UniProtKB/TrEMBL annotation:
Pfam families: Acyltransferase, HAD_RAM2_N. Residues 275-376 form the Phospholipid/glycerol acyltransferase domain. It is a multi-pass membrane protein. This is Phospholipid/glycerol acyltransferase domain-containing protein. It is found in: Membrane. One of its GO terms (cellular component) is membrane.
Length: 483
């Protein structure tokens, strides 16, 4: 690996300047990340348009005009898009896909230096959050988008001499000796030390797409969407009209799969001895899938799902207020009537981590049955924080083959509950640990607030659509495809 650094023989006291695309990332071409900006910050129409421009971009690059090809991608991806939307996608969506493409051997070498600078051919806003928080870069050098006075991107890059990549790099080293060649080149690293270090993992991320939208993957997504919409509505209608006992037989017919492990408890008698199913929270479908497996409608407590999702839900939902006293009374009243489902993480997490469990459930009953929920989808995530929450169930059922894994653990013994003198926090932490061990996940102390703060930035605000009137949510659905 050829590394050019400033003064000093030891890596820890030297500086390194590394290209991102093709060096720290395996893929040298940034096209998939512009596709993500087009899809998540704008609309399906822009996503399709950028894909149609892909052959033109490649032809321009083959002819030796890479700069022109880059500017064409930038223009199609961001022209007319709000700067705040571009920033939100760069913060909440792109890091996950960048992380999946990291070359660990190159990053190990990069991270061994004292001062680390990343250079990207993309607009700096797309890369900076990921490079600094996950690659631990000290500085990020990239192009700047031109933003008009109304806060919208014009689609052009600022071309002033002082904003050129070369000048930006030189300015970083103006008080030190600087490298003559400002690049980090890949080589075949020895296998012994390749995986010595790891970048900081991405725990929270947003967006609808599961896979990095390469040209081929993007084409498959576009071709699938019309059929996926039809299949989604068929699946939803079947779930609404058929008895729970029959739905498992139709799941495989329409491409889904349910994997069940463990033995669920029998239904409660309804005489105040309801079982509280404590589930991990992967998607908004967790309680519905649990009811399908149990073959009976088990009510679920909810916080911020959309009104449309509640309307489409085949099971009863109990909306909580996040007022601890009122919520406790509601949960006790439901348990007096029978079984109930709760997801004490309070929000979903897509990665193999569990958020901190709220201890409220442990205070209300000793009949606790932990249930490990996990899912696999091919194209679309079923939950989002940034908006269009009304489309969550539709996107889940649009996947060609949604798979859910449900693992029932044994009911907690009395000695592991509050009745034996355990504190609610100890009980909640214990349930979190055994569920994480079952799934092979890691426990964290992050909460719902931490998730939204990280996805939203320093101010902690995220555009949620849970309380939006249903007509406005329908408009949002149409706007996703047409805006």
């Amino acid at each position: 690996m050829k590394i050019n650094h400033s003064s000093g023989d030891e890596s820890v006291s030297s500086s390194v300047v590394s290209e991102l695309e093709g060096v720290l990332l395996k893929d040298p071409h940034p096209f998939p990340y512009f596709m993500l900006i087009a899809f998540e910050a704008s609309s399906l129409i822009r996503f399709i348009l950028l894909l149609l421009m892909w052959p033109v971009v490649r032809l321009i690059e083959v002819l030796g005009m890479e700069e022109l090809g880059l500017r064409l991608m930038v223009f199609v991806a961001v022209a007319g898009v709000k700067e705040t939307e571009i920033e939100a996608v760069s913060r909440a969506v792109l890091p996950k896909f960048y992380m999946d493409d990291v070359d660990i051997a190159a990053w190990n070498e990069f991270s061994s230096y004292g001062r680390r600078v990343v250079v990207t051919k993309c607009p700096r806003v797309m890369v900076e959050r990921f490079a600094k928080e996950h690659l631990r870069a000290d500085e990020v050098v990239g192009r700047e988008l031109e933003i008009n006075r109304f806060g919208y991107a014009t689609g052009f890059l600022i071309t002033k001499e002082e904003n050129s990549l070369h000048q930006q790099i030189l300015s970083l080293f103006k008080h030190h000796d600087h490298p003559n060649n400002l690049s980090l080149y890949k080589h075949q690293c020895g296998g012994e030390n390749e995986h010595h270090l790891r970048p900081l993992p991405v725990i929270f991320h947003d967006g609808r797409l599961v896979r990095r939208p390469t040209p081929l993957t993007s084409l498959l997504i576009i071709l699938w969407i019309p059929l996926g919409i039809i299949i989604a509505f068929i699946r939803i209608i079947i779930g609404m009209i058929l008895p729970m006992s029959l739905i498992p037989y139709f799941t495989r017919i329409f491409g889904g799969e349910l994997i069940v492990r463990g033995r669920p408890p029998p239904p409660s008698s309804g005489s105040g001895d309801g079982v509280l199913f404590v589930c991990t929270h992967r998607t908004l479908m967790d309680p519905v899938v649990l009811s399908v497996v149990l073959r009976r409608k088990v009510p679920a407590v909810t916080y911020s799902i959309s009104r449309l999702s509640e309307l489409l839900s085949p099971i009863p939902t109990v909306r909580l207020s996040r007022d601890r006293k009122l919520d406790a009374e509601k949960i006790k009243a439901e348990l007096a009537e029978g079984d109930l489902v709760v997801c004490p993480e309070g929000t979903t997490c897509r990665e193999p981590f569990l958020l901190r469990f709220s201890a409220l459930f442990a205070e209300l009953t000793d009949r606790i049955v932990p249930v490990a929920m996990n899912y696999r989808v091919g194209f679309f995530h079923a939950t989002t924080a940034r908006g269009w929450k009304a489309m969550d169930p539709i996107f889940f059922f649009m996947n060609p083959r949604p798979v859910y894994e449900v693992t029932f653990l044994n009911q907690l013994p009395v000695e592991a509950t509050c009745s034996a003198g355990k504190s609610p926090y100890d009980v909640a932490n214990y349930v979190q640990r055994i569920l994480a061990a079952t799934l092979g996940f890691e426990c964290t102390n992050f909460t719902r607030k931490d998730k939204y703060r990280m996805l939203a930035g320093n101010d902690g605000t995220v555009a949620l659509k849970a309380a939006t009137p249903w007509m406005e949510q329908v408009k949002e659905i149409l706007g996703f495809f047409l805006h």
